[in-house]
Amino acid sequence: MARYPPLALAAIIASAASFGSDAFTARPSFGAPRSSAALRMSSYPTTASDILWTPSIKSGARDEQIGPITNYCEDLYSVVRRKTRTVECGPIKFGSEHPIVRQTMATTSTADVEGTIEQVMRCADKGFDLVRVTVQGKREANACAKIREGLFQKGYDIPLCADMHFQPVIAQLVADAVEKIRINPGNFADGRKDFEEKVYESEDDYAKEREYLMEAMLPLVEKCKSLNRAMRIGTNHGSLSSRVLSFYGDTPRGMVESAIEFADICRSQDYHNFVFSMKASNPLVMVQSYRLLAAEQYRLGWDYPLHLGVTEAGEGEDGRMKSAVGIGTLLADGLGDTVRVSLTEDPEFEYEPCNALADMAASRLATNPDAAARQAAVKTYVDTRDITAFDRRHGALPEPKEGDKVDVSGFLHKDGAVISAVTPDMLTKENIPYLYAGLGCKTAVGMPFKDVATSDSIFMREVPPTEDTDARTALRRLAEVSVGLIVPAEELEKDPLPNAVALMDLEEAIEKEGKLPVGAIRLAVTVHGTEDEDTILKIKDLAPSMILLKTDPSVSNLHSSRRLFEILKKENIDTAVIHHFTTDTDDSNLLALEMGTRVGALLTDGDGDGVLVEQTGSKTPFSLDFIRKTSFSLLQGCRMRNTKTEFVSCPSCGRTLFDLQETTAKIQESTGHLPGVTVAVMGCIVNGPGEMADADFGYVGTLPGKIDLYYGKEVVRKSVPEAEAVDSLVDLIKEYGMWKDKETEEEEEEAAVAAA
């Protein structure tokens, strides 16, 4: 599998073999006289004052000198990869002229040389192109040389990336052994994370502190340039420096400006073999940050590749969903040259979602004739989205009318609705209790009631006949607790259903002038994305309660949907839009990825008021309950509607100080029933304090067997024994008034009766 020429490979093996346990002891320390290689580069700037820094964004100098931001991707109306330079990383290459690179991160202790070699080999065998390893100090740096040598000896030339935090000197040392260095601008030069607020009287005061950034970075840049090593300037939302936080705030702009400063240092030395990343645990922040960075690169004339990832995404379907929302959205813009899906699972399990997202991206590119035809088939529109700010469109909720016998306002939800597809077999007498449970209803004496995560409406392609009294009674009871009953108008014309929402294609509704079948109380229309603008404008006169957006397969879902929202915005039509997503997959992980990519990309734009997932084909492999929960997970991942505890969970690495998967499972079991509460589970201190900014409570490993607990950014309980830490976390949540006991079945029934 080696991709190096045999003689070059032999030379590298010999070089790696020269590393011993004290291989790095003779290297210059931070601040020592620079090496001869550095002296050869002395024609380049050596102090911050000598660098031509990117003009200030705050003062307006960038706009004045270069002009405003104009675009963030190659083409707003088709999927074209952003043109980038090629960055070399051993035998692989990053950039628009090359396939998307799939990568992961080892979870072994890097000091465990044999264990790390075995895990890296498993990752390479799985299909990964690159593996990142943790490097905390000289011990791990020495180990990297042995790992590199061991892999070469076994015939594996998969590149290694050293993950560096806090250690400029060690970064220089390990560059001898690995093909790539990842540095975090938030803590590479600033030391350990803190939240001390700094006060800058002027931008000059802020700029003066660039000297120590230059001092920390310059030796590494020189080393990487001389060895042709790659670098990732990897900004993390959770670990912005206190300097950046004080000047720019906890914002995408701060993330971008932090990265640009470090890139300016690289560029000052004529070193360009680097990529950027803008990771965050919040997919909306992540997407906005990457888009803003891409826009700045276009403005500055830069062409550096992008590494995509949602940090601390979690595990299972939730982790895949959150990753798909962030990564899939950007890939659909043509942004991204390498992908890592960060899951709280063993690294081998990251390959399938990583590969699937890359394959989905390839299938959407306009270089694919079918994709190009779908994108070209979308009618002309003007894309006016502002990628420098996030603004969610809020569709109107159905309004009560005189004579209504049910509360229609509950048919949708202000923070995003979930509509569940219900089939006739779910309405048989013996299945009705399971229907209520699958919809997330509480029940009391057999009667359904809405709960925090109950489906807002149901969609039925067929209705049970009037003589089926059990099924009709079940539907009546759902309608009485404000669950909408959405049924195609032609079905209602055959057999009326009281208090139903009649669904028509938009053209049909126009033809019928919105006239409802007997028994129906509201209209919903289906839009396919192929309608002309005049047809869409008639929605205003029809005044439907909602639009179901189910795009025709002949047009690009992304672009035809954006066109619809642009028309609605231009004409001030505030009808709620529900994304009607159909699927025939039987793979739950793939379902999460498809929903996150296809629907999440639009919700991340702020466009959409909910989701309806309908299984198609002869088989329906997923239960009503699973589809409902997955739909709510999508809304929560898009930061719309919280129906359960939000977990920010790191993916584990060699720094992790406890069994992350086991601990996360225990914390989820104890605290997973708290909607609106966010708990961060961090294996070590590197991103821990920063990610507390995105969480209400934090559980962070600090020493072996010891846990620090956070409330927001503040450590409130230190060095808690690991065996007591989960219980202590529960006590902390109670102390801050955010705890709610899990309801027993009897308590749920009592609560439902009281609410009736």
Automatic annotation (TrEMBL):
GO terms, molecular function: 4 iron, 4 sulfur cluster binding; 4-hydroxy-3-methylbut-2-en-1-yl diphosphate synthase activity (ferredoxin); iron ion binding
Keyword Zinc included in the entry's annotation: no
Cofactor: [4Fe-4S] cluster
IspG C-terminal domain ranges (all copies): 646-734
EC number: 1.17.7.1
Substrates-to-products reaction catalysed: (2E)-4-hydroxy-3-methylbut-2-enyl diphosphate + 2 oxidized [2Fe-2S]-[ferredoxin] + H2O = 2-C-methyl-D-erythritol 2,4-cyclic diphosphate + 2 reduced [2Fe-2S]-[ferredoxin] + H(+)
Pathway(s) per entry: Isoprenoid biosynthesis; isopentenyl diphosphate biosynthesis via DXP pathway; isopentenyl diphosphate from 1-deoxy-D-xylulose 5-phosphate: step 5/6
Top-level taxon of the source organism: Eukaryota
Keyword Iron among UniProt keywords: yes
Pfam family of the protein (one): GcpE_C
GO biological process: isopentenyl diphosphate biosynthetic process, methylerythritol 4-phosphate pathway; terpenoid biosynthetic process
Keywords assigned by UniProt, alphabetized: 4Fe-4S, Iron, Iron-sulfur, Isoprene biosynthesis, Metal-binding, Oxidoreductase
SUPFAM superfamilies, per the entry: Nitrite and sulphite reductase 4Fe-4S domain-like
Domain annotation IspG TIM-barrel: ranges: 84-354
Family: Belongs to the IspG family.
Listed name of the protein: 4-hydroxy-3-methylbut-2-en-1-yl diphosphate synthase (ferredoxin), chloroplastic
Native source species: Trieres chinensis
